[in-house]
Amino acid sequence: MLRIITQSAEINTELQRIHDRPYRDEIQAKEFVVGEILERIKQQGDQGLLKPNQTPIAVKDLKVRGSQLDAAYQKIPKELLDAIQIISQRLESFYKQQLSTASVKFEADDVVIGKRYTPVKRAGIYVAGDQTSPISRVLMQTIPAKIAQVPEIILMTPTDETGQVPPDILVAAQVTGVNRIYGLGGAKAIGALAYGTQTLSKVDVITGTGGLDVILAKRMVHGSVTTDTPIDASELFIIADHTGNDTYIAADLLAQVEQDPSSAVIVITSDLELARKIQAKVQQKLQDNAYGILSEKAIAHYGLIIVVESIEKAITISNEFVPHYLMLTVEEPWDFVQKISGVGCLLIGGSTPKTLGDYLGSGGVILPPSGLIRYASSVRVETFLKPSHIIEYSPSALKKLANALKILALTEGLPGSADTLGLRLEEDS
Fold this sequence. Notes:
The strands form three sheets. This protein has a six-stranded parallel beta sheet with strand order 1-11-10-9-12-13, sandwiched between helices. It has three domains: 3-22 and 232-361, Rossmann fold (3-Layer(aba) Sandwich); 29-231, Nitrogenase molybdenum iron protein domain (Rossmann fold), CATH 3.40.50; 393-428, no CATH class. The chain is globular and about 85 Å long. It is of the alpha/beta class. Helices cover 45% and strands 17% of the residues.
């Protein structure tokens, strides 16, 4: 049952419980196992991918061959291929807007300042085979890397029960420009990408989601390689007033838990009658058995309807939690947009369903966990770009700043830095 709560103390308690929900009891046991896997790969390379006493294997033997790539197109329906191509084109348009461009500014005294961006040489993309939305996860990681003009994009993904990479993943990877695909999953895949092996050069950036072993592996290799933000479970908040459509809202809640049974789904509304309608509609859909027992448990454990006195209060609660998704279904949504901070993806109005956020909205399926969105963001074009400053000073411009720079350098115990200024001033005098 999707519960309705109204009391401030209960609201705070329940939100904290939901915020702290994922993986807490499993982490310690998993950390040791994942650490051993990563250390083996770091020390032994290809051999480290195996259990002791197994026949040596090269990463190249896990590489998907050209014949498999060609055959994948014959194994998926034409309408799926068309959909992948259409969504890829739309995502390319979306991500191109994020592309950072170089700039140069000429100031007085022949001072030049600017910035430039260069792509990383090699990006590692991880897609978990046992999660929902594997096609989306391919598209939303490889397309930003492609737009950033990364020369080499490597995809790691587990094989299925037949020992093959699913054809829909193979097709999506080819459509989006992946250079190499390997049938390898879990912490081993992250280790191979992070440290490299005899047959695979290490990458510069790793992105992607997976189970707890992947989350921990990414945390452990960070520093040896850049990683996107580790992923825990996700959240959908819906802020609604009396104009909210209970049918739409119930459908969006169930769409979220369908993707991730550990996901939190929370409606915050200023209308008690709407709250009751949403509760009834969700219960009706669950009783139809279309969504399964996992969705029912998710709604019971991590679902809430919070009734507050105003939309401003609802926004305050959302800003404190910082959810992945926030749907704003109120009478004048743009009156409140500037008051909302930190969400991963903001969906505005009743005609903007959660599905749009998943497939077209900024990498929604690979957003960082709640709370971390205060300072982190989803995979984007800049994930695969390295920014650099450009600075050029003329002798006259340097002379004007030299004394202040020298004082700072000497105060901080850096006489060598002060000398570099003095030598240049002497030459120009």
